[in-house]
Structures are given as structure tokens and as C-alpha cells.
């Protein structure tokens, strides 16, 4: 029996809501698991995995889910409030990322190790620099008059697109970190594969959210 358009729409919204709920759980659960594994304070290095997972798994994920019509934790609030919370979460994520980068750089210096010679190190550096640029670009949305030849709608579209790229870079950096000697020594077997699924799940949810926002904006223009 064929599903009606209304039933399909309701089913689709339910699936998006379930995926968003899973993303919230993963966003919080993954940094928690890493914190238990790294035991922050046990060494200088122990702060690096915690800060990076907080930045790119928890804070940045929640900042982007803020605008989801199905799974935002502030659905009943105005867009103005959501934008402010988004900004606060993104700035906290950037702060954690820069601290995490600084700590691992200093730790390598203390141990006489080379800097940024692995794919994880290079991707991490690129991701943190990109995140800094993305936050700087977000200022244009607060002061759109600075870009006189660009409409606010176009600025929002480019900011969302470039933000998605930055988020995917962060997820890729986390996944490369899980291929490091420290992580593979501590996490083995099925647990390692489950850990790798965490950034995959959140990235798929965020990509779906951004693509739906783009399609909605296209339909509203016609």
C-alpha cells in the first residue's frame, strides 16, 4: 500500500528527529568517553584529546544543531537567541581548539618531537586555522553592511556552506586522531569501530541539515 504524501512527510520528520537525537547523544557521549580514557590532568598531553573532542564533537555539533527545526535544544526560542547561543558555542569551540593545538605543540617541544609531520597533525592545524577564519567570516553576518555588494541571504548561504566544510574537516581530524598510536593502543576491537562511527554519525546529520536548509531556501525563492 502506497504511503500518502502526508504520511511520508511525517515519517521523514520522525527519522530526522531520531537522527538528531542520536547526534546529541554522540556529541556528548564521545567527549565523555575520551575524557575517561585520557584522564585529564594525568599528563600535559591528556588535555589535548579532551579539548579537541569538546571543540569539534560537542560544542561545534551543538552550535550547528541549534538551527535544526526538529532537534534544536532551543526550538521554542527566537532566531535571535539561537544566533547568540550559536556564536557563544562556536567561540568556546574555537578557544578549546586553539588550547588543544597549543598544548600538543608545547608537549612535542618538551619531548623533542617534530611538529605537524603526520596526517592527523597537518589536518588538525588546517582545521583550527579554518575554524578561526570561519568565525571571522561570521562577523559579516552580524554586520552585513560591510559587504555592500552581497545580500544577507547570500552571506548566510556561504557561511553555512563554509561552516559545513569546517565541520567535516574537524570530523576528519578526529578520525585521524583515532588512528594514532595513543588511541589504537588504548581502544581496540569493536570499541575502536564504534568510536569511528561517532564523527560519521554527527557529520551525516549535519550534512542533511545543511542540505535541507539549502533546498528550502531555493524553494522559497520560486
TrEMBL record:
PROSITE patterns: CYTOCHROME_B561. It is found in: Membrane. The chain crosses the membrane at residues 17-38, 44-67, 87-106, 118-143, 164-184, 190-210. Residues 12-217 form the Cytochrome b561 domain. Its EC number is 7.2.1.3. Keywords: Electron transport, Heme, Iron, Membrane, Metal-binding, Transmembrane, Transmembrane helix, Transport. The keyword ATP-binding does not apply. Its cofactor is heme b. One of its GO terms (cellular component) is endoplasmic reticulum. One of its GO terms (molecular function) is metal ion binding. It is a multi-pass membrane protein. It comes from the Eukaryota. InterPro entries: CYB561D1/2 (IPR045150), Cyt_b561/ferric_Rdtase_TM (IPR006593). This is ascorbate ferrireductase (transmembrane). The gene is Cyb561d2.
Amino acid at each position: 500500500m502506497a504511503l500518502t504524501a502526508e504520511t511520508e512527510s511525517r515519517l521523514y520528520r520522525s527519522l530526522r528527529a531520531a537522527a538528531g537525537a542520536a547526534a546529541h547523544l554522540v556529541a556528548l557521549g564521545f567527549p565523555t568517553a575520551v575524557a575517561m580514557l585520557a584522564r585529564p590532568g594525568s599528563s600535559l598531553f591528556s588535555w589535548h584529546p579532551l579539548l579537541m573532542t569538546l571543540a569539534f564533537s560537542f560544542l561545534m555539533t551543538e552550535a550547528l544543531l541549534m538551527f535544526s527545526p526538529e532537534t534544536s535544544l532551543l526550538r521554542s526560542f527566537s532566531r535571535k537567541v539561537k544566533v547568540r547561543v550559536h556564536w557563544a558555542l562556536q567561540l568556546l569551540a574555537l578557544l578549546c581548539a586553539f588550547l588543544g593545538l597549543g598544548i600538543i605543540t608545547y608537549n612535542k617541544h618538551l619531548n623533542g618531537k617534530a611538529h605537524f609531520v603526520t596526517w592527523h597533525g597537518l589536518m588538525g592545524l588546517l582545521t583550527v586555522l579554518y575554524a578561526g577564519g570561519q568565525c571571522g567570516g561570521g562577523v559579516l553576518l552580524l554586520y552585513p553592511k560591510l559587504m555592500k555588494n552581497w545580500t544577507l541571504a547570500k552571506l548566510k548561504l556561504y557561511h553555512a556552506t563554509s561552516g559545513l566544510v569546517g565541520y567535516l574537516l574537524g570530523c576528519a581530524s578526529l578520525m585521524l586522531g583515532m588512528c594514532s598510536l595513543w588511541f589504537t593502543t588504548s581502544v581496540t576491537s569493536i570499541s575502536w569501530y564504534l568510536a569511528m562511527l561517532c564523527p560519521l554519525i554527527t557529520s551525516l546529520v549535519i550534512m542533511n541539515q545543511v542540505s535541507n536548509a539549502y533546498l528550502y531556501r531555493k524553494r522559497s525563492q520560486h
